[in-house]
Amino acid sequence: MDGLLAEPEVIACGEIGLDYYHEGAAKDVQRSGLLKQLEIAAARKRPILIHCRGTQEGMDAWDDLFAVLEEHWSRTGLGGVMHCFGGGWEQARRSLEMGFLISFAGNLTYPKAQPLRDVAAKLPLDRILVETDAPWLAPMPDRGKRNEPAWVARTAETLAAQLGVEPAEIALATTKNFERLFGLKSGMGN
């Protein structure tokens, strides 16, 4: 990982994090691996892309994740992205406080995802991203199919509706947010 992060075209470290969803998840091994990955990312001064998925019953992975990030990442000031965000408002708030952008995938469009849309509706435009998570999480009406990058527009439309803005405003905001976090310039967001 250190060698890859040394390459100039590599702009972030990820997807790293904690996933307790499957029974028997080796939590101590995951935490140890995450600590090492954070150490490498900090040394290379790269933002991180966080994956966090709790058990079916709760938010335990989020609690463990924030404990690790508060102790080992916050002070770096490098921030990152909460990839394919699936937490509640408390997890979003804590993420924002730590300098993370919140990224939404196609699951934002699912009928049973109203709690996630409620979280999205509270977020400031300058702290959001959209993503495909391809080949997974195709947005409605193509749920269950192989996700395609072009379909990210559907997620952006759903996010725009939650925030009461036009999809074009989401496109501009997410481009600016991405460029700001990763220190890039495309010309579109300027």
Count the E strands. Answer: 5
The number of helical segments is 7
- Going by helix content, strand content and strand pairing, the class is alpha/beta
Q: What's the SSE pattern?
A: HEHEHEHEHEHH
**What is the typical, i.e. mean, pLDDT?**
94
- Computed over alpha carbons, the radius of gyration is 16 Å
How many distinct folded domains? Answer: 2
So, the CATH homologous superfamily of the largest domain?
Metal-dependent hydrolases
Can you tell me the CATH class of the largest domain?
Alpha Beta
Globally, the shape reads globular
Descriptive report:
There is one protein chain. The protein is an alpha/beta fold. Helices cover 42% and strands 13% of the residues. It has a five-stranded parallel β-sheet. Helix 2 (27-43) packs parallel to helix 3 (60-72) and helix 5 (114-121) crosses helix 6 (152-163). The chain is globular, with a radius of gyration of 16 Å. The model has no long low-confidence stretch (mean pLDDT 94).
Name the features.
190 residues; alpha/beta; TIM Barrel; 2 domains; 7 helices; 5 strands; 13% strand; globular
SSE layout and pairing:
Layout: H1 2-5, E1 13-19, H2 27-43, E2 48-53, H3 60-72, E3 80-82, H4 89-97, E4 100-104, H5 114-121, E5 128-130, H6 152-163, H7 167-182
Parallel strand pairs: 1-2, 2-3, 3-4, 4-5
Helix pairs in contact: 2-3, 5-6, 6-7
